[in-house]
Write a structure and sequence with these properties.
Structural class: alpha/beta
Family: Belongs to the LeuD family. LeuD type 2 subfamily.
Helix content: 25-40%
Oligomer: single chain
Radius of gyration: 16 Å
GO molecular function: 3-isopropylmalate dehydratase activity
Strand content: 15-25%
Catalytic activity: (2R,3S)-3-isopropylmalate = (2S)-2-isopropylmalate
Subunit structure: Heterodimer of LeuC and LeuD.
Number of domains: 1
Enzyme class: lyase
Mean pLDDT: 94
Order of helices and strands: EHHHEHEHEHEEEHH
Shape: globular
Distance between the termini: 31 Å
CATH architecture: Alpha-Beta Barrel
Low-confidence stretches: none
Number of helices: 8
Number of strands: 7
Length: 175
């Protein structure tokens, strides 16, 4: 996991709920290849998965990911390999699901006004610096703490815990 993400911005408004991110009618899908096809399919960009490139960035207004606690909403964004999600604010459960799956979710007040669809955005997770490379506009977000960076660098909380358990096993087995 890099500490800097850079990609094309795709904008979404306020109160984008989990059914807009990943409609409930698809929850029975189990293969990531099937899940990823429906990323944002309930939103104003229903075909996002057809042109979204790995590393591109979602920029949203307030309360991104509100609604149900289904992990599928974050899973579908991981499936399209989102570089980061920048939002004015997040639904609490969605935010934690995103981080736990290894998706950088960055809260930045005023970001929606600084970025247009198609702009190139660069985010430094450890300093919180955000630069719109297209316009030169800058913003400052809360930097990610070491624990969150650890989760992201390991690809999610489950891989991080597995790694910690393996390291502990190797350490205790070697003594």
């Amino acid at each position: 996991m890099k500490t800097i993400a850079e990609g094309t911005a795709y904008l979404f408004g306020n109160n984008i709920d989990t059914d807009q991110i990943y409609p409930g009618k698809y929850v029975e899908l189990t293969e990531m290849e099937d899940i990823r096809k429906h990323a944002m399919s309930g939103s104003e960009e229903p075909d996002l998965a057809t042109f979204f490139q790995p590393g591109d960035i979602i920029v949203a207004g307030t309360n991104f990911g509100c609604g149900s606690s289904r992990e599928h909403a974050a899973m579908t964004l991981k499936g399209i390999e989102v570089g980061a999600i920048l939002a004015e604010s997040f639904g609490r459960i969605f935010y934690r699901n995103a981080i736990n799956l290894g998706i950088p979710a960055i809260t930045c007040k005023g970001i929606h006004a600084l970025v247009k669809r198609g702009d190139t955005v660069r985010i430094n997770f450890t300093t919180g610096e955000i630069v719109n490379e297209t316009t030169g506009a800058k913003a400052k977000a809360e930097p990610m703490n070491d624990y969150m960076m650890g989760i992201l660098q390991n690809g999610g909380i489950k891989p991080m815990i597995r790694k910690m358990q393996e390291e502990k096993k190797q350490k205790t087995g070697a003594e």
